[in-house]
């Protein structure tokens, strides 16, 4: 079973930016593309558990602020070492200006 959870307002995320979102003891990262699409991944780097929302967002990628591993935030794919394990991704949508994320349980 999944639930659509309100995470923030679209305006809370800069274009080509990221924002941290915590829910039920887990950390997620929300992303807003240059054309206002929204995406959601696990919020911690799979290499050393650093908060990805503090990293650099560019061209559908997030760069970890600690060791510069890169992930495609649309698919979760690890694209540059030292990150070698993919992120989990979660459905996200905008409804009446609110960002909603589909999370398990």
Describe this structure as you would to a colleague.
The protein has no helices and eleven strands. With 105 residues, it is mostly beta strands. A hairpin with a 5-residue loop joins strand 3 and strand 4 (38-42). It has a four-stranded antiparallel β-sheet with strand order 2-3-4-9, with no helix packed on it. It has a four-stranded antiparallel β-sheet with strand order 5-6-7-8, with no helix packed on it. It has strands at residues 2-9, 17-23, 26-32, 38-42, 56-58, 61-63, 70-72, 78-80, 89-90, 92-95, 98-104. This is Rieske 2Fe-2S domain-containing protein. Keywords: 2Fe-2S, Iron, Iron-sulfur, Metal-binding. Residues 5-101 form the Rieske domain. It comes from Rhizobium herbae.
Q: What is the element string, with H for helices and E for strands?
A: EEEEEEEEEEE
What's the total number of strands? 11
Strand order of the largest sheet: 2-3-4-9
Number of helices: 0
Measured between the Cα atoms of the first and last residue, the distance is 5 Å
Q: Tell me the CATH superfamily.
A: Rieske [2Fe-2S] iron-sulphur domain
């Amino acid at each position: 079973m999944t639930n659509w959870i309100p995470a923030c307002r679209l305006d809370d995320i800069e274009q080509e930016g990221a924002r941290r979102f915590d829910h039920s003891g887990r950390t997620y990262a929300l992303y807003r593309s240059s054309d206002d699409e929204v995406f959601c991944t696990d919020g911690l780097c799979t290499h050393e558990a650093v908060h990805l929302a503090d990293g650099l967002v560019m061209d559908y990628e997030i760069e970890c602020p600690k060791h510069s591993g890169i992930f495609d935030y649309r698919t979760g794919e690890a694209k540059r070492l030292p990150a070698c394990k993919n992120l989990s991704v979660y459905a996200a949508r905008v409804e009446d200006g609110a960002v909603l994320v589909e999370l398990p349980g």
